[in-house]
Each structure stands twice: as C-alpha cells, then as structure tokens.
Amino acid sequence: TSVIATALLLAGLSGAAQADCDDGEMVIKFSHVTNTDKHPKGIAASLLQKRVNEEMNGVACMEVFPNSVLYDDDKVLEAMLNGDVQMAAPSLSKFETFTKKYRIFDLPFMFKNIDSVDAFQNSEAGQSMLNSMNKRGLQGLGFWHNGMKQISANKPLELPGDAAGLKFRVQPSDVLVAQFDALKASPQKMAFSEVYGALQTGVVDGQENTWSNVYGQKFFEVQDGTTESNHGVLDYLVVTGSDWWEGLDAPVRDQLATILKEVTETRNAESTRVNEEAKAAIIAAGGVVRELTDEQRAAWVEVLKPVWEQFEGDVGADMIEAAQSFN
Ligand code: LMR
C-alpha cells in the first residue's frame, strides 16, 4: 500500500479502493472524480482494477483513487505527465488545452443519443482521435460512456429563455461557455468537486450533467428540478502518458490493452441503464424531473445549434459530417 493510500485511509476518506500491491509489482495509479459503485465511470474503473489485479497478479497492481481524493480533473493530466499517476478518465471536455478536436463532443445536439456517440467513437474518425495528443505526451486508450446531459437550476427550465441571466457551472470547455452565452446566461468554469457547494450557497444557479452525476453529487437536493434535455454528451477518455505506455514490455501492454478493451465494451453497454437507475433514484428521493414537449425541445435546438458555427474550424466540417452520419 502506498504512502498516499495509507494517508487517505488513515484520514478516513471513504470510497478509496486501493489494493495492497506486492513488492516487485508495477503500480498503476488510476485517479478519478466520481463514486465507485453507482456511476458508469466508477463501476468501470472498479472492474478494471479487479481484473488487472486478478489477471496480472505479480506483474502489475492497480490502485484506484475515486471521488477526487487524489486529483481534480484540472490537475490530473499534469500529474500524469510528471509520472505521479498512470491512468485517468477525465471527461472529453477537459482536454481543451491539449487538443481542440474533442470540442465536437461538447457541441449541443451533435449526437442524438449515446448509441450515436458510440458508433462515432468506434468509427475510423473516432478512433483516430485517440492519438490526437501524442505530441503532447498523452495516449488515449479508449472512450468510456457516461451519457447525455440534462440541465438544472434553482428555477424551472422549460424554454431556453428561462436560463437567461442565470449563472451556470460549466466544465473547462469554451464550447460549453459559448453554449451558455447563447442562452444569455453566465457560465463559470469550476471543478466537479466544488459544484454542490456552489449550488448550495448560490455562487451559481444551475448546472448541466448526466443523471448519474446529478444523483451521485446530490445536485437535485439543491436545485428546483432537472430538465430532461439530452442536449449534449458527457463521455470520457481513458488516458495514459505516451512515454509510460510505450515503455511497458510488449506482453504487459498487450494484456493491459486487452483487459481494458473488454471492460470498455462490457461497461459501455451498461451506461444507459446506470443513468436510468440514477434518474429513478432522484425521483424516489423527491427530486423533480421535467420533461420537454417536442415544441419546447425544438426551441432549445434553435437557440443552441448555431454554436456549431463558432467551432467548425477547430473540429473540422468533415468530422461534424461523420458524427451526423451516425444519428
Ligand atoms: C464534470 O466535471 O461535471 C464531469 O466531467 C465529472 C465526471 O467525471 O463525470
């Protein structure tokens, strides 16, 4: 057990799922920001850890640090380049200082549902994006699904005009800033771990996220309600350092890649169900969920879709066309 892991355990931080690594095993630290058992990413990371530690026993040992106990997403990529952590799965909105190509995933109403996202990611165009940050020292290993984003605030949101004048937390993505600018709202970039407190104290009025994050972080407790807008996607890149990855012995790298591929397929197939369960749990806990009529939804599309034009140069018209072909 590492010093950090011991310190976390002594500090009584819950949810950390470190393994006891044996002498001689290569330690793979995996840092993320969500819970471990009711979240598409958390469950996937836990399964990855379990399989690596069973099947690569004696060779490799994975320690998962969930719930932002080790790093927030704004620090984790830097830590990876410094060799302090070997794997992470930040949302695709968090790579903007490394590549502008991932902005396509943040464009509102780009994808109809997670199946379209899946098909695009698995296409040649999507797979080429795994290597788009190699020059910056990062290697994408695969895409993990969370799901479609919903929008919430401290007042009902039914038409886009309802968001005007409100402050919204956004992930650190200029596309998401532009999205809330289009709504005449005030976007504020903020780390995931700070959102609940910011909503509670009124630092921001609203936020956008998936059902599993709204449930896992209890945002519904400090919001008027959540509108089922499905207006965007929140997915992850499982990422590692290029040097670290290339430095592995080929058999070790191959086994790790195979386990990761299998975990990715298994858990991506379950991500929608995990989010549906979170939505049901929100309702069961007294949270309000609002559905949009077709007319209301059309009004959101009309206001938000023009945001695409601002970023077409970054993501490429060909990539937009490829993405659209899977809807
Ligand atoms: C967020 O910052 O809202 C999400 O990216 C958190 C996560 O990892 O799901």
From TrEMBL:
UniProt protein name: C4-dicarboxylate-binding periplasmic protein DctP
Stored InterPro entries: DctP_fam (IPR018389), TRAP_DctP (IPR004682), TRAP_DctP_sf (IPR038404)
Keyword Signal appears in the UniProt entry: yes
Gene Ontology biological process terms in this record: C4-dicarboxylate transport; transmembrane transport
Coiled coil: none
GO cellular component: outer membrane-bounded periplasmic space
Entry-linked PANTHER family: C4-DICARBOXYLATE-BINDING PROTEIN DCTB (PTHR33376:SF7), PTHR33376
Family that this chain belongs to: Belongs to the bacterial solute-binding protein 7 family.
